[in-house]
Structures are given as C-alpha cells and as structure tokens.
C-alpha cells in the first residue's frame, strides 16, 4: 500500500513538473516571438507608412504614393489614371482623349501588386551613402551576377566572357555606346550614326544633341549600303542602331550595313518573352537592355549593356564615370530585389503573366481592325520560342497602324479626331500615313483605346453602308460602287461581331437589305 502511495505521489510530482516545464517553454516561445517583432525598430514605422498610403482606395483607377501630394488634412491624395477623376478616382470623364502615345509599361503593375511582399525594398537612412561599393566599383556585383543568371534563364543573350556596364536607363547607354564605338574608328571624319526607318526617335535626337567631331547622325541605314561594303573608304565609318524587336513595328530587325567599317548597337529593350518569341540567344558585340520594358519599372532608370570588346567596355565605363559616376545605389538595390522575383520559377511567373496580357491585347486589337478597310496593322508571324518551348503568336508592345484611304495622309490627325492620341509616323522617320499606338499602358488606357477603336471601325461600317444605300437608291446607277464585298457590323452582348455579306444589286431588295443592316447596327 505504502509502495502504491509512493508511486502515485511520484507520478503526480512528475506530472506537475512536466506541466511547469511546458508552461515555461510556452512562455519562452511567446517572449521570443514578441522579441523578434520588437526587433523591427526603425523599419516598422516606414512599413506602416508605406502600407497606409497604398491601402488608400482609389477605386482601382489610380493610386496614392508616399511622395505624392498631401491634402490639407495631411492625408495622401489619389493620383488618378487618365480619364478618371474625383477624390477616389471613381468618376469617368466621358469625352476624354485616350493616351496611346506613351510607352509606359504599366501593364505589369498588377503583377507587382500581387507580389507586393516579395518585391518591396526597405532602405535605411544610411544605405550605401558613399560614392563607391567596397571594391571601389560603381556597380553591385550581386546585381551583375543576377543579370547574367537572368539572361541564361531566359536564353535571350550570351553573357559568358562578356563585360557589363550599368546605365541610368538604356537612354544613357545609347550615347555611351555611340561615344565608345566612334572613338575606335581612328578616322578623321565623324562616324555616321544610322538606323532603319521606322526607328526609335531618340537615336536621332540624342545623337544630334551630343554631336561632336567623332560622330554625326546620318539618317537611313539602307542609303549607305554600298559605302559600308567597301573597306577602303576609311572616311566612311558607320554605327548602326539595330532594334529587335523594333519600336514601333515589332519586327525582329537585323543589321543592314555589313563590313569592317560598320559597327552595330543592338537595342534589345523588347527582346523578352512578353513581347516576342525568343528564337535564340543574341550574341552581338554590343547589346543594350533596360529594366523599363523588362519589369515595367521605367521610373527606376536602370539599363545595362553587354559588351564583347574590352576597349569598348572601358570607354563606356569612362563615359559613365564622367557623366553621372554610375547608377544610384538605391536603383541598383531595387533592381536586385525585382530580379529576385523575376527569377522565381525560372522566370515563368512574370513572363507568363506579361505574355498572357500582351497576347490578349494584340488579339483584341487585331480582331477590331480586321474588319476595317480604312486601317491596317503590321504583319507579324508566329515563331518558335526557346523560352516557352512552343510556337508563339505575336505580342508586340506597339500597334503600327497604317491609314489606307488616300485622303487620310495624316493618320495621327485621323485618330485624334476619334479621341485617340498615338505617336505620328514621321517621328519615327516614316510616313505620316502611319501612327504608333501603345499597347503597354495601364488596363484603363487599353480598355478605352479598345472602345474608341471599336467606335471608329463601327462608324466606318456605317459610312460604307450609307454609301451603299444612297448609291442603291439612285436609279441612274446600275451597281453598287463598291468593288469589295460589303462588310457589316452588328452589336451583340456589347461585343462587336463582324461578318461580310455578298454584294447585292441595285434592286429594291438590295436597298432593303442595306437599310436593315443599318437598323441592326443602330438598335
Ligand atoms: C527601343 C527603345 N530603346 C530604349 C528605350 C529607352 O528606355 P529607358 O527607359 O531604359 O531609357 C526605349 C523606351 O521606350 C525604347 O523603346
């Protein structure tokens, strides 16, 4: 009995002891978790401030920013997307003009909002205050490594054994490259800087701004073909800008000028899987990329050049040293953080998101314009993409529209009349019959562009039908004066559905038919 009592009291003692141990253990856990959240001392206020501003409701048509305007009451103010207004951006401005001019790649903003936690950067007040990194350089070695990894993952450029220079956006690198290549010619006359129309207008305007005894903008590349082949004409040295895919028409351009006295700057701003199939890695002497079009962070001003030749690399580094002394360390840190996210799941997450969105936009636009005879779109062909391992349909960043009617010589003005602002063809060294419409802007911009284009094509159909009706009503005219089958447009469930009808004769049946079609459109 005594033995039994002893056993039971030992058991109770053990139980009590274990309960106390457990309690102590939980108290320790609780304390240590409190302690770790307490460790967020100086960053906590900043995080609260950032989340406070971003939680402000701007009705999905705008956003507030830490460095944006503050109301009289000390509250941040919503910055509304184009065509929206009001304190919370909820009011649509019905007659507003849609901006399809700017190449702001805001189509990627929803991706970054979805990946807010991973892409946010916390920066202390003392983050890299000095001019140089600890190794004396101006570039983050970690970021350089990440850029090489990115190209290997995407398979769009060879970086092994190449040098890399950072720039304040690719804009700064374009002229750094012209400077570096023109210094190597050893010629007494300035190198001729050329491009193939339609070309990105900054090549011309920037080269003209910085023109020197070493280089000068000389227009169209094709007009110099015969001179570039001859290696004896040492006064003819060429620097050709090659843009692939091209801004504005999305073509995968190749160099036009060949020969020892022709050097190329490959601007590969759009050579990423959301804008084009990637047929193979580019392996050119000088290639330029930009964060602006890769992740959409145009405001961060970050670009990089990949260079084969050490002397050319050194001259670009010298240019950067004397021009800005490198790229802001804040920008380099942000880029590093963004690329960490881009590289997740072997790049599939961001590039798939971007591709889906661009592909949707291109399909929509193509469908709207396919029934128009007045406007045509550039032709792009599907290609095998080594990144996605499939044949991919085109997904260009811009629509390059041609006004087909003789009287529509100024295509920009035609679209402006329809409340669409594009970029005129002559800005790209092309005819004014062309206009560029941006497809990379915000969802709001694209929705409105789509709507305005639908209305424009709808009016075209109406005008065609009216012409058909009035011609049919005229008994002196034997046939409809239209050589093509007449296209008609009907509106179903808010979507425009296009189909074509066979041409009818000038009979009353034909007249009835056309009138019925107009009525169908109207009601
Ligand atoms: C072909 C091309 N190159 C370069 C740039 C300049 O980009 P960044 O923002 O890097 O200066 C642009 C911008 O639109 C572009 O379209």
UniProtKB/TrEMBL annotation:
CDD domains: AAT_like
Residues annotated as domain Alliinase EGF-like: 41-96
Bilayer-crossing regions: 12-30
GO terms, molecular function: carbon-sulfur lyase activity; transaminase activity
Highest taxon, organism lineage: Eukaryota
Domain Alliinase C-terminal: 98-456
Leader sequence segment: none
Single GO biological process annotation from the record: amino acid metabolic process
Cofactor (UniProt): pyridoxal 5'-phosphate
Keywords linked to the UniProt accession: Aminotransferase, Membrane, Pyridoxal phosphate, Transferase, Transmembrane, Transmembrane helix
InterPro entries: Alliinase_C (IPR006948), Alliinase_N_sf (IPR037029), EGF_alliinase (IPR006947), Ethylene_sulfur-biosynth (IPR050478), PyrdxlP-dep_Trfase (IPR015424), PyrdxlP-dep_Trfase_major (IPR015421), PyrdxlP-dep_Trfase_small (IPR015422)
Pfam families according to UniProt: Alliinase_C, EGF_alliinase
Homology family: Belongs to the alliinase family.
Protein name: OLC1v1017622C1
Organism listed in the record: Oldenlandia corymbosa var. corymbosa
